[in-house]
Design brief:
The complex is a heterodimer of chains A (about 110) and B (about 110). With about 110 residues, chain A is an all-beta fold. Chain A is built from no helices and 11 strands. Chain A has strands at about 5, 10-15, 20-25, 30-35, 45-50, 55-60, 60-65, 70-75, 85-90, 100, 105-110. Classes of the chains: A mainly beta (about 110), B mainly beta (about 110).
C-alpha cells in the first residue's frame, strides 16, 4: 500500500538550533499534514498544506508542499525545550483515509 | 470547551478479558476514528465511522469491535481475540471523511497483565 517515509527517525539537537525533517512518498498526494505528539498525549495538528509548492508558517515552524506532490518538509527555527516530541507527517489516500509516517523524534540535548 | 475525551488514561487487563475504551466528542463531528500506536511506529487505523450507525474496518481490525449508536460516542472494545493488545490507543474525529484535519483525544494506554 501507500507509504510515507519520514526521516530522520530521531534527532538530537542543541537548544537554539534549527531543525529540518522531511517526508517522502512514491505516490502523489493532494494534502500534506504535520502533527506533533507530546509524550503520553494525542497528536496535535501543526500545519496543513493543500497546494503543490505551498509554503506555510506557524510561529517558528515552516512547512512546504513539494512541487512534485510526493514530498514535504518541516523546519523548526531556534528550537526550545518544549519542541521535544514526535513529529508525524500524514496525508490522505484515495479512500479518504489518513496515512501516517513513522515519526521523527526530537530530543534536545541538556 | 469543545474537544474529544478518551477514558481511562491507563487501563490494565488480564489475558482473556474483553475491555472497552471510551471516546466522546462534543465537536459535532460526523467522522470518528480509532488508531493504535506502538513504539517507533506511525498510527495504524483500527476502525472508522463516517456517520451514526455505520462503521468500517481499518487496516488492523481483527480482535477489535466498535459501535456508533450516537454521534458523540465511538467506543472501542478490545476482545480476547486480539493477540497483542498492549498499546497506546488514540481516538480522533473530523468534520467529515473528506476532511484531512483530525482532532485527537489524549489516548488510552492499555496494558495486558
Amino acid at each position: 500500500g501507500q507509504q510515507l517515509n519520514q526521516s530522520p527517525q530521531s534527532m538530537f539537537i542543541q537548544e537554539g538550533e534549527d531543525v529540518s525533517m522531511n517526508c517522502t512518498s512514491s505516490s502523489i498526494f493532494n494534502t500534506w499534514l504535520w502533527y506533533k505528539q507530546d509524550p503520553g498525549e494525542g497528536p496535535v495538528l501543526l500545519i496543513a498544506l493543500y497546494k503543490a509548492g505551498e509554503l506555510t508558517s506557524n510561529g517558528r515552524l515552516t512547512a512546504q508542499f513539494g512541487i512534485t506532490r510526493k514530498d514535504s518538509f518541516l523546519n523548526i527555527s531556534a528550537s526550545i525545550p518544549s519542541d521535544v516530541g514526535i513529529y508525524f507527517c500524514a496525508s490522505m489516500d484515495s479512500n479518504y483515509q489518513l496515512i501516517w509516517g513513522a515519526g521523527t523524534k526530537l530530543i534536545i540535548k541538556p | 470547551d469543545g474537544g474529544i475525551t478518551q477514558s481511562p488514561k491507563y487501563l490494565f487487563r488480564k489475558e482473556g478479558q474483553n475491555v472497552t475504551l471510551s471516546c466522546e466528542q462534543n465537536l459535532n463531528h460526523d467522522a470518528m476514528y480509532w488508531y493504535r500506536q506502538d513504539p517507533g511506529q506511525g498510527l495504524r487505523l483500527i476502525y472508522y465511522s463516517q456517520i451514526v450507525n455505520d462503521f468500517q474496518k481499518g487496516d488492523i481490525a481483527e480482535g477489535y469491535s466498535v459501535s456508533r449508536e450516537k454521534k458523540e460516542s465511538f467506543p472501542l472494545t478490545v476482545t480476547s481475540a486480539q493477540k497483542n493488545p498492549t498499546a497506546f490507543y488514540l481516538c480522533a474525529s473530523s468534520t467529515g471523511y473528506w476532511n484531512t484535519e483530525a482532532f485527537f483525544g489524549q489516548g488510552t494506554r492499555l496494558t495486558v497483565v
